[in-house]
Amino acid sequence: MLKYVIKRVLMGVVALFLVATITFFLMNLVPGGPFEFEKAVNPAARAALEAKYGLDKPLLEQFKNYLSHALSGDFGPSIKQRGREVNDIILTKFAVSARLCGITVIVALVIGIPLGCIAAVRRGKWLDNLIRVFATLGIAIPGFVLCTVCLYFFCISLNLTWLLPLGLATPASYILPVFSLAFYPTSYIARMMRSTMLDTLGQDYVRTAKSKGVANSSVLFKHALRNAILPIVTYLGPMMAFMMTGNFVVEQVYVIPGLGKEFISSIMNRDYTMIMGTTIFLAAILITLNVLVDIAYKIIDPRITLN
Amino acid sequence: MGIYLLDIRSEKLSFFTQAGEVKALDDVTLRMREGEILGIVGESGSGKSVTAYSLMGLTAHPGKLIGGSIEFNGHRIDQMSEKEIRKVRGKEISIIFQDPMTSLNPVYTIGNQIREVIRLHTGKSRAEANAHAHELLTMVGINEPERRLKQYPHELSGGMRQRVMIAIALACEPKLLIADEPTTALDVTIQAQIIELMIDLKKKLDMAIILITHDLGVVASICETIAVMYAGKVVEYGTVDEIFYEPAHEYTRGLLNCIPKLDDKDRTRLVPIEGVPVDMLNPPIGCPFAPRCNSCMKICLTRVPPETVLSSTHYSFCWLQKKMEFEEGAAV
Fold first, then answer.
1. Which residues contact residue A272 at a Cβ distance below 8 angstroms, ignoring those fewer than 6 apart?
2. Mind spelling out the 3-state secondary structure of chain B?
3. Tens place of pLDDT per residue across chain A (307 aa)
């Protein structure tokens, strides 16, 4: 196990290096730069700015400088947000995003898994059909539609101002963002759970459990669930990655100071140090999540060997 | 309580599929005494396993018991609630399944799976259950039981897994053990070992056994009575000697003709049963075996044959027997 983790960490470092390299050169290939404004800038001032951030040096040297700083944990100052370090920005924004995503993941699992199980056990009955209709809706409705409709309906039509999620200051302010963020993954998990559970309930060992006189709930939650849940665990990795980066829309609509919004705006602004910082940070999180998912695999199913 | 441990009377069980009703069991009547070994033989889809599962209330969706009665040890299984029948499963009636490779839960240890059944039906603590599981593994001939209890199914061979299944089935000393083709998925030497183990344990624990199998050789060597099933009906029932020496149904005869004889000097060919099994969605109106029968008569195609009682332990459902009975009667 330890050997495996070490191996995966080393592979992760290589992956991060590749991510950094590709992002760095792609970013510089994109037309424009941090000091391209609509109005023409004084060439002398611009040269001074570029010199200050080292952008006047050859690309390879810039990359070398960046890497040596990044390796010591310093992602440099933000080019566009004057006077702020990339490290500080990422950490403050990440704290907001991580809390929101964490709650969303828990909500999606706690609601999605039981719904899928119920649908599987009651297959073909009205409850199953109802769950399937909602799950299909959840997958079909785009996030921005859901967000704006929620905002309009609850906060404007019903005038429930305490639900307004501005800045996520109160517990109630989490309700709408979590709902909008969790609707898709909950639906996806419920659908996936239903199909893997149906498959598992037809397995011989489930029949064995029943033949031993095990109660139905125990057959479902002890014998079947642990076997049926692996695909959900697989989905957890990409799902969290999607939430970290792809919750841009939710953050935009609800005015949440999260990392997703920061990620997009840094690209729009050509804030080179921010682009590099957020990309490497998110990649590192993704890699860590994937290692954790693999370890969870091994814990859930003893047949899986890690190597 | 009657004299029988198990008394099934005209059991009717159908699967209600989208294509229509499949009469998996049509008027099955079977009886068993305590400690008896009954063999149920017949081809795939004849209803052997469905009969066995219905005894434990394990009929799979969309199957439904629609008629008849099942009495076990003086209690009506077919009238029990789900809660009552759970107390029978694993305690009074146990089952060993065909494929030991898939019948154990892959994510729990052997010990966990044996302890589960013990703790469900007895008030034993975890430690007591573990000690009992240890004994059981020794009883079914598994070496190093201490280590095995901590292992997962995938770490054991097929033969060992089937021994574990037997240990689970016998954990609460059931009155009836159902063995649903217990050796089909195993290789030949392991098959012999498992059968030997079952006979051995039967002597020790004195339970009744229903052995469901395709293997007439195994049936002949260990069973006392045999039920031959075809298309959801018991077409012939008798003691081993009666079935093997005086078969009274054309299907039974056909089955016996398929067994190679070791002492056969004439190098006679084995005779297969021609034709295909019955389409259970559209069963024939008369005798279900009529389309494949070499001695088929006109009446066989239009009317279901009635029971012919040949001895107190032997009966069959064949028009040919009725004809012979009539001719003998006319001759007297």
1. A27, A28, A33, A34, A53, A55, A79
2. CCCCCEEEEEEEEEEEECCEEEEEEEEEEEEECCCCEEEEECCCCCCHHHHHHHHCCCCCCCEEEEEEEEEECCEEHHHCCHHHHHHHECCCEEEECCCHHHHCCCCCCHHHHHHHHHHHHCCCCHHHHHHHHHHHHHHCCCCCHHHHHCCCHHHCCHHHHHHHHHHHHHCCCCCEEEEECCCCCCCHHHHHHHHHHHHHHHHHHCCEEEEEECCHHHHHHHCCEEEEEECCEEEEEEEHHHHHHCCCCHHHHHHHHCCCCCCCCCCCCCCCCCCCCCCCCCCCCCCCCHHHCCCCCHHHHHCCCCCEEEECCEEECCHHHHHHHHHHHHHC
3. 788 889 988 999 999 999 999 999 998 888 877 777 767 778 888 888 888 887 888 888 888 888 888 888 888 888 878 788 888 888 888 888 888 889 999 999 999 999 999 999 998 899 999 999 999 999 999 888 888 898 888 888 887 877 777 777 788 888 888 998 899 999 999 999 999 999 999 999 999 999 999 999 999 999 999 999 999 998 888 888 778 766 788 888 888 888 888 888 888 888 888 899 989 998 998 888 888 888 888 889 888 887 7
Q: Closest Cα of chain B to A202: distance in Å?
A: 9
Bridge partner residues of B69 (DSSP) = B9
Amino acid, single-letter form, for residue A231 = P
pTM recorded for the entire structure: 0.83
DSSP codes joined into one string, A249-281:
HHHHHHT---HHHHHHHHHHTT-HHHHHHHHHH
Determine the Cα–Cα distance for residues A293 and A5; give it in Å rounded to an integer.
Answer: 12
Measured from the Cβ of residue A267, the count of other Cβ atoms closer than 10 Å reads: 15
Interface-testing mutation among B56, B61, B97, B105, with chain A (most A C-beta atoms within 10 A)? B105
CA angle B249, B294, B23 (to 5 degrees): 60
E strands along chain A, which residues? none
Is B130:B111 a contact under the CB 8 Å cutoff?
Answer: yes
A228 sits in which H/E element: helix A225-228
DSSP A150: H
Task: Say how far apart CA B160 and CA B158 lie, in whole Å.
Answer: 5
First vs last Cα of chain A: how many Å apart?
A: 8
Query: Tokens 């400088």 label which residue?
Result: A65
> At which residue do the structure tokens 């002890």 appear?
A222
Of B90, B107, B117, the CB nearest to A301: B107
**Candidates B58, B87, B154; nearest CB to A210:** B58
* Chain B residues inside the 8 Å CB shell of A227: 105-107
Q: Which SS3 state, helix, strand or coil, does residue A77 take?
A: strand
Nearest 5°: CA angle at B168, between B167 and B170? 65
Distance from CA of A292 to the nearest CA of B (A): 19
Q: CA dihedral defined by A29, A30, A36, A40, rounded to 10 degrees?
A: 90
Taking contacts as CB-CB distances below 8 angstroms, the residues of chain B near A203 are 102
For chain B, first and last CA: distance in Å? 41
CA distance A117 to chain B (A): 17
Query: Token digits for A146?
Result: 């859901």
